[in-house]
Amino acid sequence: MIENTNKKGDFIFRPKARLIKTIGEELISSDNVAVVELVKNSYDANSPIVTITFLGNVKQKKQGRIIQNYLSKEGASIEIYDQGSGMSFETVKSAWMEPATDFKKKNTNKNRKFTGEKGIGRFASAKLASRLELITKQKEGKELVVTFNWEDFDKDDYLENIHIHWEEREPQEFKKENSGTLLRLKNLNTDWDTEKIRTLRTELSRLLNPIVPVEDFLIEIAIPDELNKDVNLNGIIERTELLNKPNYYIKGSITKEGYPKDFIYFSKEKGKEEQLLIETNKFIQSSMLKVPIMGEFSFEFRVWNRDRDNLRNLGREVDFKYGEVKKILDEQSGISIYRDGFRVLPYGTPNNDWVRLDIRRVNNPTLRLSNNQIVGYILISTEENPLLKDQSNREGIVEGEAFDDLKEYIKLILNEVEQRRYQERERFQTSDPNTDKNLFEKASLDTIIKTAKEKVPEQEELIKNLEQKNIELEKVITNAQEIISRYRRLSILGQLIDTIIHDGRGYLSKIDGRCYLILEELKEELLNKSEIEDNTNKIQKTRKDFSKLFERIEPFGGKRRGKITNIVIEELIRDQFLLYSREISNLKIQYSISESNHTMKIDKADFGIIFMNLIQNSIYWLANSDKARKIEVEVSDSSESIDIIFSDNGPGIKEGTEQSIFKPYFSTKPDGVGLGLTIVGELVSEYKGKLMLIDNGPLEGATFKIMFKK
Questions:
Q1: What is residue 670's predicted lDDT score, i.e. its pLDDT?
Q2: Is residue 355 pLDDT above 90, yes or no?
Q3: Is there a domain that residue 326 lies in?
């Protein structure tokens, strides 16, 4: 008889040796990242300095017509030498040889916050070279030499079968009374040319916090003379003086509640710093965030105007050529993050626009700053920002709500610079392009024709040609104004589509539901006539509601464009509010419109655009208000005009921006395009009216007054 028994037991993982190299290749993305990780280890060891030395044969290669020197990987080595505390035999055995150890967490005998806790630095050496000689020494102790052959980890063998040789010896690399660690990386995996080393130097120059410099920690590079010709890459790494001469900067901090603290703004034009007194409630409301979770952080953003004249003037100040200035700013631009004094990669590297500033600038190039205009620093800490966690590969912060909050606040801070920069630059402009009329008023030959008739009346043929060209120019201008008028309607097309999709689906769902109930009734033997009639009536009502939706958006269609009709102002304003019924309902906004009935002649689409923009603005600024949200619209008339007062109880208009808000591309919204009020002003002007911001409105927020002449 066969015994039928069920067996059980335990398995254990037996990793293959190649796992170590695989982890290194996955976690360490480049040679530069590898060197940076090893330099961080020196910092964690409390070393006052770390020296990176490149040794080997310098060869030449031809790239196009250029002959370039490079350090050949064959027989070359990199030595990373520090004067830190060194490691004991037990530390190497229980920490270095045990990946993912919590040794750094346990070790409290330190003067600095550790830059990493995952123990991936050792894998960086495998990224750089096939062999590693680790030599470490504590004070008054012997040298411990550990030799790694990373090629052994390519074998099809188990990790436990790979043996790492070590030995103790009398000091050779360090003096008896000194301590430190030397990593000698032999048989490099890649060549190193001048440009690659320059990039490394740039990365290392940005490694340490530039705002609050880390005391007693220097980084030095030493390369062969043949690589150092005309480039001067040897020596202690320091930041260029150029970065201390921005056109503007803003610095300060954000509290854990999201409040602005100690904001300081500088403009080169003014030549002095000024403290920004930003009202907390307006700052929080404009951020559109309730309770940010990224934690407290400090910042400094330095901003340059990148036009050629400004960069040339800057070059004269620091004795650099225009090309050198541009190259340095290209290399250094971007927003970097520093955690506990050390940079978090890859933020701030060239072309790493992680806040998406360039996309933002495309929508508003006049106001917004691009990524390459900014050298920015965000300072966070492990303690204050626990939700901003590093990715396991040290290549960024884990995406999530906290990181999204940080990005939103960066745009909010930059908006403070952008508004002031816009206003300062406006002072140097003579024209005021607020309206289509202003935009085209200089595009006329009238003055030239008049002068020609006065000065050279005999040139009849010339004057005739000028008059003909003037007629043609006027036609072009008329056409351009017509195109602009079309684009005004396009600017709100997306919102109308959203309304149609949302409300239309709601109406169709109601119709579908009522039809289903009628069909169910028809299946019954005893029909309930009253219920069928009730459902049929409700379908009819829903159809009418659907029809009204189309009536409200019909004026924006192409066929009705430009048609002047007699309208009832209050009715048409109500229609515009109905287009935003979903948002108004969600935010519990109470709105009131005069019960009167005033009429005027206007294109319905133009009138709709005016009030859609005003309603949108109010909804935006009311969205984060904690009090009861209100909008009031009052319509009245006098002997000369019809007056419309539009008021809300939001945060109001930011002090100092009262005139700028009507100018094209100026916006106090972090992602605003800055065309809403400009379009409103242009449309009102076309009907011989005026748009103005007034004080002491019916509600305590922003109040606009529109006057249409009779």
A1: 78
A2: yes
A3: yes
CA distance 576 to 463: 51
- CA dist 486 and 476 (Å) reads 15
Question: What are the helix and strand counts (H, E) for the chain?
Answer: 20, 25
Q: Are the beta carbons of 539 and 515 closer than 8 angstroms? A: yes
Residue 497 is predicted with a pLDDT of: 56
Nearest CA-CA partner of 195 in 223, 218, 163: 223
Could you give the CA distance from residue 425 to residue 416 in angstroms, rounded to a whole number?
15
Alpha carbons 33 and 55: distance in angstroms, whole number: 20
Over residues 594-605, mean pLDDT: 90
pLDDT of 69 strictly over 90: no
- Total count of domains within the chain: 4
What tokens does 475 get? 């036609």
Say yes or no: 203 and 160 in one domain. yes
Question: Residues with Cβ < 8 Å from 137, sequence gap 6 or more?
Answer: 86, 143, 144, 171, 173, 174, 178, 179, 180, 181
The pLDDT score that the predictor gives to residue 506 is: 53
Sign, CA torsion 669/673/674/680: negative
The mean predicted confidence, pLDDT, of the chain is 81
State the residue range of the domain holding 337.
242-426
pLDDT surpasses 90 at 80: yes
- The verdict on 574 and 465 lying in the same domain is no
Distance from the Cα of residue 247 to its chain's centroid? 20
Q: How many CB atoms are located within 10 Å of the residue 665 CB?
A: 18
Q: Both 381 and 460 in a single domain?
A: no
Q: Which residue has the tokens 């040139």?
A: 459
CA distance 134 to 640: 90
Residue 282 belongs to a domain with what CATH number?
A: 3.30.230
Strand partners, 647: 632, 703
Share above pLDDT 90 across residues of the chain, in percent, rounded to a whole number: 37
End position of a domain, from candidates 217, 239, 261:
239
* Amino acid making up residue 367: L
DSSP letter (8 states) at residue 558: S
- Residue 63: band (very low, low, confident or very high) from pLDDT cuts 50, 70, 90: confident
- 516 within 8 A of 533, measured Cβ to Cβ: no
| pLDDT for 281 | 63
The Cα–Cα gap between 542 and 514 comes to: 10
Categorize the per-residue pLDDT at 440 as very low, low, confident or very high, splitting at 50, 70 and 90. Answer: very low
